[in-house]
Write a structure and sequence with these properties.
The structure is a homodimer of 340-residue chains. Chain A has 340 residues and is an alpha/beta fold. Chain A folds into three domains: 44 residues, no CATH class; 130 residues, Rossmann fold (3-Layer(aba) Sandwich); 127 residues, Response regulator (Rossmann fold), CATH 3.40.50. Chain A is built from twelve helices and twelve strands. Chain A binds a DNA duplex (16 and 16 nucleotides) through helix 2 and helix 4. Chains A, B: This is LacI family transcriptional regulator.
Chain lengths: 340, 340
DNA sequence: CTGAAAGCGCTTACAG
DNA sequence: CTGAAAGCGCTTACAG
């Protein structure tokens, strides 16, 4: 015995029409609520279609309508950390419109990207969303001259396109202002590599809020760097911070662990804020991290609705749209509720 | 100014045929390497198709061939921890065959699942792969009577279907045998909830290898539980383990941190092994975790090739296929290389 | 060696 | 109120 696949004799609109004793055109119009016919006929056709389990063939439909109700999501974020929430937002927004999403992970391989783009175009996607893992890098493939609309989300787009990104400056401000509100006065900033645009943007916002140079330490996106930074700071003679704003949650976790290992209490002695609100890290840190959430799902939702608009020919203004971040308060700052 | 989308005047085979001065049939045959014609004609058509940037419409093709070169991946693993590697394997295996993948995250919502399945069937997917986050649970939707082949990966399937899963018993054996080989004699097992099939299977394999009851502690899948378990063990009078085999990497991370906080050295005093080889956890633990990898990418690859076979009508034996796990050695056990 | 015709499953003017 | 016909873009017997 073995399993068999294949699509043996699917039911078509022919079968429905025959069973209902009407022509194919009438059946089509009945099912699509178009044309005019007796309510009785319409109902009968619809009932029979339901009974025989009729499912319209989207390929045939798409051939006529020039719409496949399909879009492609291109990403070079293998890890899925940014792509997954974006994808969830896109999917949620487009499901109501009957649109399905092809996910294409292209790493940083231009050839792989080209293959995926070609495959999607042949499959007549209504549009493409390009997403990545940083705001100042393009995907390794040129999407600027495609026959379908392209929207960028969390990756650098072209000047004539629509690009959605998080407002990192506003997110950083949110974090630092919160620390200030918590009564912290000596706030340090431990972050990722200065080569990242978002790192510079967040650092600038940090300096802006504290109104001075502050203490900015550039490093890399890992827990280890959090440990090293804390060691550096506490091994110096200089005045110690009572709060540390970190460039991402992994660094923040390293910082929190390092502080605890030095016998310092978080948040009592030092408050810590992370960035990304990556549940797996922020939630498992002891104490759980207060962190800036980039609202990637909302970003995905808007990107999805935007490709859809473009695919339907509705006009959309090009440019970069910055979406506000949100501060998610947990225990690492010493307060439970941002509104309190 | 605004961005415009839409598919204005795509090039069809008509255009190619006209430009090459041949009929549509000849153009089609030239491009598909079928039929017979002068080499000169064939070359000319192909060259012109390339020049005008002709891309065959997969919708039209699919209508004829009953193959959409599209499959659906259904998952209830929102977090993507298991789905992402599986997806990567599927995608990699099917790309060569021109197959694209619809990703559908259905949470545990049957209604959402039904909507996605209906959408995929209308779009004439050639098959569906169902994937989840545990081996002993079905997706919240019945896939047993679909007009297309369904393959299960890392989720419970039906008796007549093909199901791919990791061999958790073998994986656990690998881990415990490795600890034994490292000279460890008092190996404990700290794991997840006993209600999970894979937890029981791993625990049984653990007992098997150590040849006795051992010390099995069921809990939950979090770092905190690792801390609690270590506290429990070390607060008792009984003999302390010199190795702990953990049910997943998060527990293992908690265990490692808890041991270090007690002044115990890992791996010198206690060796620790995790399960899942989740890079973000295993790699950031100090020291990095030796962990069991379930080879989910390979699992995805095989699942992908299997739906493809079924879609093409090739016979496949039903049943559960267990794929071997692999031990990834890092520093938490005291050795660098399993072959040494 | 090349092309006219039928048809995949549907929708949409158009005619009756 | 209902249906015959044309057509979306392609492929595939079949005829010449």
């Amino acid at each position: 015995m073995n399993v068999t696949g294949g699509k043996r004799g699917r039911i078509t609109i022919h079968d429905v029409a025959a069973a209902a004793g009407v022509s194919i055109s009438t059946a089509s119009k009945a099912l699509n609520e178009t044309g005019r016919m007796s309510a009785e006929t319409r109902e009968r056709v619809k009932r029979i279609a339901g009974e025989v389990g009729f499912r319209p063939n989207a390929l045939a439909r798409g051939l006529l309508s020039k719409r496949s109700f399909t879009i492609g999501l291109l990403t070079n974020d293998t890890y899925g950390r940014f792509t997954l929430p974006v994808m969830a937002g896109i999917s949620e927004a487009l499901l109501d419109h009957g649109v399905s999403v092809f996910l294409c992970a292209i790493e940083d391989d231009p050839a792989l990207g080209q293959i995926h783009v070609d495959a999607m175009l042949e499959k007549q996607v209504d549009g493409i969303i390009a997403t990545g893992k940083r705001l100042d890098r393009q995907l390794p493939i040129d999407l600027s001259d495609l026959p379908v609309p392209v929207v960028y989300a969390f990756t650098e787009g072209t000047s004539t396109s629509v690009t959605f990104r998080s407002d990192d400056a506003q997110g950083a401000r949110l974090a630092v202002e919160w620390l200030v509100k918590m009564g912290r006065r000596r706030i340090a900033h431990v972050t990722g590599p200065e080569s990242f645009f978002s790192v510079r943007e967040r650092a600038d916002a940090y300096r802006d809020v504290i109104g001075g140079e502050g203490l900015v330490m550039f490093g890399h996106w890992a827990e280890l760097w959090g440990h090293e930074a804390v060691a550096d700071i506490w091994n110096k003679e200089s005045e110690r911070p009572d709060a540390i704003f970190c460039g991402n949650d992994q660094i923040a976790r390293g910082v929190v662990d390092a502080l605890r290992e030095r016998g310092l209490r978080v948040p009592d002695d030092v408050s810590v804020v992370g960035f990304d609100n990556w549940e797996i890290v922020a939630g498992q840190t002891r104490p759980p991290l207060t962190s800036v959430d980039m609202e990637l799902k909302e970003l995905g939702r808007q990107a999805g609705l935007t490709v859809l608009a473009l695919a339907e020919g509705r006009p959309v203004d090009p440019g970069v749209r910055k979406l506000p971040c949100r501060l998610v308060v947990r225990q690492s700052c010493g307060a439970q509720n941002p509104r309190r």
